[in-house]
Specification:
Layout lengths: L1 H11 L8 E5 L11 E7 L17 E7 L2 E7 L10 H13 L4 E10 L9 E9 L27 H13 L5 E7 L8 H9 L4 E3 L3 H9 L3 E11 L10 H26 L2
Parallel strand pairs: 1-4, 1-5, 5-9, 6-7, 7-8
Antiparallel strand pairs: 2-3, 3-4, 5-8, 6-9
Helix pairs in contact: 1-2, 2-5, 3-6
Bound molecules: hypoxanthine (HPA).
The site of hypoxanthine has 13 residues, from strand 5, strand 8 and strand 9.
Length: 271
């Protein structure tokens, strides 16, 4: 808690805007924050307790601004558990954005598809997740000022927000797929046997982020919308080999569509 408060105080002294909506922009998807009006940006590395991230495609900045008239704040890039940081560090950015006043969190990510009907570039609303990381950011003494000891995860991904996002997608001329996100630790991609297992478990996409952020956000009682960009078929579903450059390339190619979708949702969120 002291760490969260220290980080919030640091950010508040440098970012004046009180955000309504918080965003986490994943691999290749950070461009949305570049179009915020009256932007105020802060590198992760300066924020107390926040590690510097250096994964390709992750700028590692907090950017606040106005998106179509709505006060927002975004993490342009995120901290992943596989980088070796503590989970407190992994979720610190989300906690700070919510403490600054946001009551809704929109998380985006790049994922591998576990269903053969999910072509590269498909956008999918996350309906639920499987936390297969073997870790939970709420382990340890509970800070009752942030949230309760035991968080309800029964509707972690807000059904109304999923409906809203689907409606916005329809208006924009495409179908927003839906499915369960399997959150794994990484950083190696899955084996083909693991991909078959995840599909059997009922997951539609797999990725190495998001689940801890969503647990932290639900702990703080924020509403959550998760949008995945399918960047590749899961390992073994095709003869293609996986690499981060391809993942990032496909994410970038989908970034404009994802940005339009998120912008449309944000505009409708705030009266
Ligand atoms: N697996 C895990 N994470 C990913 C993948 C994948 O296939 N693609 C993008 N992120």
């Amino acid at each position: 808690m002291a760490q969260v408060e220290e980080a919030v105080a640091f950010v508040r002294a440098r970012i004046r805007r009180k955000p309504r909506v918080a965003l986490v922009l994943g691999s290749g998807l950070g461009g949305l924050a570049d179009v915020f009006e009256q932007p105020e940006a802060l590198g992760f590395s300066g924020i107390p307790g926040m590690p510097d991230t250096n994964v390709l495609g992750h700028a590692g900045r907090l950017v606040a601004g106005s998106l179509d008239g709505v006060d927002v704040i975004a993490m342009q890039g995120r901290v992943h558990p596989y980088e070796g940081h503590s989970l407190a560090q992994v979720v610190l950015g989300v906690r700070v954005m919510l403490k600054l006043g946001a009551d809704t969190l929109i998380v985006t990510n790049a994922t591998g598809g576990l269903r053969t009907d999910l072509a590269a570039g498909t956008l999918l609303a996350i309906t639920d997740h499987l936390n297969l990381t073997g870790q939970n950011c709420l382990v340890g003494p509970n800070d009752n000022t942030l949230g309760p000891r035991f968080s309800d995860m029964s509707a972690a991904y807000d059904p109304d927000l999923i409906e809203l996002a689907s409606e916005v997608a329809r208006e924009q001329g495409f179908t927003l797929e839906r499915g369960v996100y399997a959150g794994v630790l990484g950083p190696s991609y899955e084996t083909p046997a693991e991909v078959r297992m995840l599909a059997l478990l009922g997951a539609s996409v797999v990725g190495m982020s998001t689940v801890q952020e969503v647990i932290a956000a639900r702990h703080m009682n924020a509403r959550v919308l998760g949008i995945s960009c399918v960047t590749n078929p899961g390992a073994g579903l095709t003869s293609e080999r996986l690499n981060h450059a391809d993942v990032e390339r496909i994410a970038r190619a989908s970034a404009a569509r994802l940005a339009a979708l998120v912008t449309g949702v944000v505009r409708r969120l705030v009266p």
